[in-house]
Amino acid sequence: MAIAMFKPAHAWKLSALLLICAGMSLHAQELTFLDGTMTELSSKNTSYSWQLDYRQDFFQNFASSVAYINEGHVPGHYRDGEALEAWGNLPLFNDRIAVSLGAGVYYYYDTQAMNASGSADVHGTAPIYSFTVTGYLSDRFFYRVMVNRISPTGDIRTTTATVGIGYWFGQHRRPLGKEPDKAPPAQAEYVTEPQLTLFGGQSVVNTLLSQKALAAAAEYRQGLLPHLDGTASFIYEGDPKVERRSGVGLQLWPVNTFLDESTSVGIGVGPYIFIDRRHPMNSGQTVNVGLSNPAAIAPLVSLTIARRLSDHWIARIIWDRVTSNYNRDSDIFLAGFGFSWR
What we know:
The protein is mainly beta.
C-alpha cells in the first residue's frame, strides 16, 4: 500500500526535543496552570490566553520547561502551540521567591481564514522569550506570574500575560535554600507494567468552526526502560463532517511517577498512520473520492496522566494533537480505564 509521507521537519525536530527534555533527570518537576490575556502587538487586539507549563529543575539556577500555550482568538487567527525553553533562576528571600528569565522555541498551529467558507492550518516556529515571578506558598504549592513574547517572522507577534497556581512534584518535599532533592534509587528503576486501556472522548478539528465528534481509542502500553514507555494505539476520530479519520499511533513516552507510584504523567511522540475517508490522500494531496485510499502519516504528540485505582485497574486521560498537511489538524481528548498485569 502506498504511503503519503507528511514532512513538517520543524514539528519532528521539536518533538525530538520534547522527548529528550522530558526524559532527563525526572526528580523535581513543577506543573503550573496559568490564565490571562494575549495582546497582538501590531493591531493591539486582545484575547484570552492560557498555558499549561511543566518545568524541570536541574540546578538551583537552571531549569528547562515544556509548555502548551493557547493564544486565544483575534480576527483571522486562532493560534496555539508548544514551547521548549531554558531558564535562568534567581532565588530570593531564602528561596521563597524566584525570578526567572527563559528563552526557547515555539512551534505553533495558527488557524487562519482563507475565504468565506474555508480556513488554513498554518504551522511554523518562532522564538519565545519569557519572564516569571514565582512565590512558594508551601513546600508543595506555589503561584506564578508569567509574561511571554512570541515573535514569528511570518505571523502575528503577541505578548501573553498570565497568572496561575502550581504544584511541586518532587519525590520529597521541596527543599528551601538548596539544590533540588535527589530521587531515591528505587524511583529510578520504575518500569511500567503491560497495560491495555479503552478510551472514549471527543475530537475537535482545528478550523474556524471547531467541528467536534465522538472519538474512541484502544491502547497497549509497555515499559521499555526505566521511565520510558512504548505504546501502540488504534484511534477513531469520529465523523466531524470535515474529516473522518482513523488509524494507528506508535509512540515513545518519557514518563514519571508520583505519590508512591500511584500517579504517572508522560509525553508521547511518534507517527500516526491514518486513513481519512472524507479526504483520500495521494502523495499528500486530496484526490477524487473514487480513487484509492492509501494511508498517510502525521506527527502525533500527546500528554497523559494516569491514576492507579487498584493493583490491576488504572484510570487514564490523554490529549492527542494530530498535525496534518491538509488543513485538518485535530485535538483528541480521551478518558478511559485500563487493566495492567505485573
